[in-house]
Amino acid sequence: MHIEIVEFPSEDPDSSDPEPSDKTNFKETDYFSLVEFTDGEVSLSFLEKCWLDIFNTIGTDELSSIIDVAINSSSHPVKLPDKKITLAIVATDNTHMCQLNHQFRNKPLPTNILSFPDGSIDQKQDEYHLGDIFLGFETINKEAVAQDIPIKNHAMHLIVHGILHLLGYEHEYEHQAQIMEHKEAAILDILNIPDPYLL
Question: In order of start, what are the domains of the chain with their CATH numbers?
Answer without folding.
Answer: 32-194 (3.40.390.30)
